[in-house]
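Case study 2.
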Amino acid sequence: STSLAKDYEGGFNTVANTFVDLQAIMADLQNFMIGTQVDKTHTNPDAYANLMPSYLQASAEPYAIKLEAEYQAAVTVYQQNLNDFHATSRTASPASLDALFAETENTVKTISATVKAGSDLLNYVTTNYPTAAGLQSLPSITATFQANFGSYTNTINADLINLITAITTIANDSQAIGTAQQSLAQAQATLNQLTVGPDALTVQSQNIGIENAQLALQTAQQNLAYDTIRAPVAGIVSSVPSVVGASVPSPAVSIVSDGKLAEVTLNEVDAAKVALGDKATLTFDALPNLTLAGTVAEIDPVGTVSAGVVNYNVQIDFNQPADTSSTNVVKPGMSVNAAIVTQVASNVIALPNAAVHKQGTTSYVLEPASPLSIGEIASSTSGGIAIPGGTKTVPVTVGVSNDTMTEIVSGVAAGDQVIVQTVSGGATTAVVTGAAGGAFRGIGGGAFFRGGGG
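Prediction:
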């Protein structure tokens, strides 16, 4: 604001100095326009046009006419501008001073056009006036008039530059003040907002930003944790294939855990019967005297196809023998055989698989048509006996079975005599007395199963 006030003061002084110059220029222009120094009977502009030969007067008259029009316009704006200048003080309002500055700039330009029109007239006359011998020369005052017009041009140009500079400086300072006021208003609005406090939307936005930063921190912490290799189980490191500077393979470290898992492969038929938690009995080729109990801990959810056969890996959890100092200690990589118990039937009647026959969907056993004596059964140990009266077929309902025995749900009872094996063509025939419990052993060409209730 201080600079702007000084700019207006300087601008008013520029206008004052301009009018000092314009007053002298307008007086000299008036002297030229109404003076008769060239021809006592004509004013100077007309006199110069009349000095030209008759064949050039027509082309010289437009210069004189234009000079007259420009001069009359300059007199009008000059007189009005001079009156406004006297009526305006240097302490007037910025709007009044701006109007005065703009009006003065226009006046200077109008007077400059008048000076140019006068110079054009004199330049045309001096350039085109004939210089043939015997013609009268141009009046000597012509050179004086030309010098005066040149001086007016220089003075007016300097005044015009000073005016434009003052107007531009004022405009720049005014714009700077406007910008500063706008910045002040924005700062005041910000201050008011800070005084009132943030609104709910701002708080919510900031909270979201905090949550995002916390998530980024958690991600960074997780990534940092990945820089450390951690063992998933307790145990002993058996090998470290990684070397410094190389990409870490999988697994990065091999560990022998404190617990043990046996892995066996089952085809899809057997795998469908196995469930987590099933009991198992493990034997080892390298440890023939060791049998361990285990539990199914994991079954592959997806099978592996090899040569058109779908297989599933089954993990069986077991414990080492209590005496770890003995030679019967399972070591990683040993071959293992697993018998997995998928069903258990207790206190049931069971027969050797060879005693149970099947025709279509019906299961049956063979019994002597007439009961045999103990002596006859004993005689089968020497190579079998012929069964007097032949055999009879007894339908039975079977239950669970394994590789050697089949459960009989109905059809026979404990103590019934059942034939295990028959040989046609006169060979011995082995029979079974008793349908459950007892011992099963080979007798000559056949076998019997003796026992009582199950």
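The two ends are 119 Å apart (CA to CA).
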